[in-house]
Amino acid sequence: MMSHIEYDDPYAQRPWLAAYPGAVPTDIGAEDYSTLVDMFEASVATYADRPAMESFGVRQSFREMGVAARQVAAWLQARGLVKGDRVAIMSPNVLAYPAILFGALLAGGVVVNINPLYTHSELEHQINDAGARFLFIFENFAHTVQAAWPNISVEQVVVVRPGDLMGLKGLLVNAVSRYIKRQVPAYAIPGAIDFVQLLRASAGLQFTRVDVGRDDIAFLQYTGGTTGVAKGAMLLHRNVAANIAQSWAWLRYHIEPKGPHTMVTALPLYHIFGLTACCLLLVKIGGCCLLIANPRDLGGLIGTMRKNRFTLFSGVNTLYAALVDHPDIGKVDFSALVHSVSGGMSTQQIVAHRWKTLTGQPIIEGYGLSETSPILTINRPDIAEFTGGIGYPLPSTQISLRMPDGGVAPPGERGELVAKGPQVMPGYWHRADETAKVMTSDGYFRTGDIAVMEPGGMFRIVDRLKDMILVSGFNVYPNEVEEALSQHPKVKEVAVIGVPFAHSGEAPVAFIVPRDATLTVQELRVFAHEQLTNYKTPRYYEFRDTLPKSNVGKILRRALKEEFLTRHPVLAPQEAHESEVQT
């Protein structure tokens, strides 16, 4: 933890308030938000007949979503779940996801979101660290659970399919997925039941309302933090509910008159951005989420967009870039679009320009982290053009910029962005030591990002403090990749850096000192894909006789990066051939 030196803090006066849109309050109060359970139940009652979710052309009303969530909650209670127990969800965006999410919260559970593309070792760590009792797994990835099963202590697995909760059409969707497209690898999980079996078993069960409070944990949202060790950010009900209230206070007077709203929800709900900015915010305002199960299928995504009138769009730079490049994007009707938001990684100016030309709407960029529920800053919703900055702190959010000694960076100078606000987590799950590392002595959360405040109060990210690599909006930590590659018996030393990559913003590059001269790049690629999720695997490998080190033996990643970029300023989007990378 950085030491704190007392300086006058010019940011304490919140100079950015002068740039706020006129109708936006400077602060929100506790009366503006409660728990996510209260929010959900209020929306189900208020917007009962409105569409809440849509998947594969089937719409689910708020009333139907409420019924399904209560069925899940009643089943969990019947299986012995008590307040505070952890419920893991490992699934893409399908109709069952919100029902499971809200069902777990209604029952007093803590939701643990898991990337369905995780390897079995990644799954094992997260399940065991969270202590999850229940795991809802999308069938396409159930084989990963089978591989992890001997090393996890989950009591019950429930298998989810894409057509669940879709009625008769769901049977067809499941058949197409399983038998025609053959997308489901074989698996066998002891005691596992199907989600439809859960729904049948819940018939006649009585849901008992749980006294869920604002200070109860709603989510364990896992992040690599500053060390690369996966840690669960404890997001309380009041943290997430406050961020929804803050976001709505910022956006309300701009978009509410143009509603009711439908958002293209291509961002995965297991990611904090998609969870809050799409699912929870739309539930709060009575909107509908167009759930996209596989955003990598651009043709399918565009087909869904062509069939639906949508008013809101959320994405990361790589998704926007892929869409504007697609030959069929011109067939989409953007006439109802009123708001496009981006986050997770820096949005490129050229991509934002092309999106504005295509749709007539600028990209509104925001900034945040898993630990901040996530949104800290966002651009004004009424801008005419993309700004390239991360915008202004949300109501009730305090931002400061700090020097390495803990003092305050003068306005206009760079400093580490630190934050306070009702959306900031209280700490990491069972990681008091790691929590202490990310908090300043005066109670600010350290983001690890270097920023500058411009004269008008807008903030701009200028660098990252650590060596974290951003791949399509997901954090990749060199320590984790190095640890995985070092397990190969033919690897002596390894160092990993991030470099610009046209397809995903950045990509990992690995430098290897072989232990055995027979080691090949292809062999390493296969090994890496067995150990790591695809986006974490290096795109280039380079063999070396030695790696540059400091006088105490620390590998100098920065020296490797500077030298590599002189030869490869930007990687091509295709995988490199072995002959291109071995030296």
Structure summarized in a few sentences:
The protein is of the alpha/beta class and 583 residues long. 31% of the residues lie in helices and 22% in strands. Among the domains are: 61-212, Rossmann fold; 469-581, GMP Synthetase, Chain A, domain 3 (2-Layer Sandwich).
Describe this structure in words.
This protein is α/β, with parallel strands linked by helices and 583 residues long. The longest helix is centred in the middle third of the chain and has 19 residues, at 237-255. Residues 1-6 and 574-583 have low confidence and may be disordered. It has a 9-stranded mixed β-sheet with strand order 2-1-11-10-12-13-14-15-16.
Query: How much beta, percentage-wise?
Result: 15-25%
Radius of gyration: 24 Å
Largest sheet: 9 strands, mixed
Low-confidence stretches: 1-6, 574-583
Mean pLDDT score: 91
CATH class of one domain: Alpha Beta
How many H/I helices?
Answer: 17
SS class? alpha/beta
Shape: globular
Secondary-structure arrangement, i.e. CATH architecture of one domain: 3-Layer(aba) Sandwich
- E-strand count: 25
Spatial ordering of strands, largest sheet = 2-1-11-10-12-13-14-15-16
**CATH fold call of one domain:** Rossmann fold
**How far is the first residue's CA from the last residue's CA?**
40 Å
Give the fraction of residues assigned to helices: 25-40%
